[in-house]
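Example S7 (structure tokens).
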């Protein structure tokens, strides 16, 4: 009996843009949790499908699914930051395979990369750190400084972040989605939150 080919457990797909349906391998690493397809689809519905000219940073890149999705939709520059040497090497191989000229892979610390950004220089910051760590607050503090006035911060976390928690960071909740154990947040700088 023949079966239709099923999506392998160790891969996710790019949902839209020039690399639509491209498969991305998922390494079997503790704590590696690719953003579910449905959540990514919702995020890019929120942001709009065309990110032409956007400057993006994926601070905890992992599989690269979030940052590569942005690049696939026309972002001018996407920096994928990954601390794990093996994952960073996979991302570089993938970048070359896709001939992704707008994408750069950097092995290193995501929070340090966020802190090195020029103030108000980034249109989209993607923050999806390991859920077990204490990285959320320092990552958001650095991202709040780096995000452009009309930019966005995407945060994936195991619990919902409220406006009360975000206000001291100068951020406001723009959109929120819960999918299984994942809380997906789209944040904006506070001064811009009422504009939309």
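Recovered sequence:
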């Amino acid at each position: 009996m023949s079966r239709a080919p099923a999506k392998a457990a160790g891969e996710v797909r790019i949902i839209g843009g020039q690399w639509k349906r491209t498969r991305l391998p998922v390494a079997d690493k503790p704590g590696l949790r690719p953003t579910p397809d449905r959540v990514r689809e919702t995020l890019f519905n929120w942001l709009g499908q065309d990110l032409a000219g956007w400057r993006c940073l994926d601070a905890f890149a992992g599989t690269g699914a979030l940052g590569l999705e942005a690049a696939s939709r026309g972002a001018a520059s996407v920096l994928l930051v990954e601390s794990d040497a093996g994952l960073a090497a996979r991302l570089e191989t993938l970048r070359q395979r896709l001939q992704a000229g707008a994408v750069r892979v950097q092995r290193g610390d995501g929070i340090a990369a966020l802190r090195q950004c020029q103030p108000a220089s980034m249109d989209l910051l993607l923050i999806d750190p390991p859920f077990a760590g204490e990285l959320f607050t320092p990552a958001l503090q650095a991202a709040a400084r780096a995000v452009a006035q009309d930019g966005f911060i995407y945060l994936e976390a195991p619990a919902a972040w409220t406006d009360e928690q975000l206000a001291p960071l100068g951020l406001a909740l723009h959109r929120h989605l819960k999918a299984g154990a994942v809380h997906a947040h789209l944040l904006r700088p506070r001064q811009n939150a009422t504009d939309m």
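Notes on this example. Helices lie at 37-47, 65-72, 85-98, 110-116, 136-146, 163-166.
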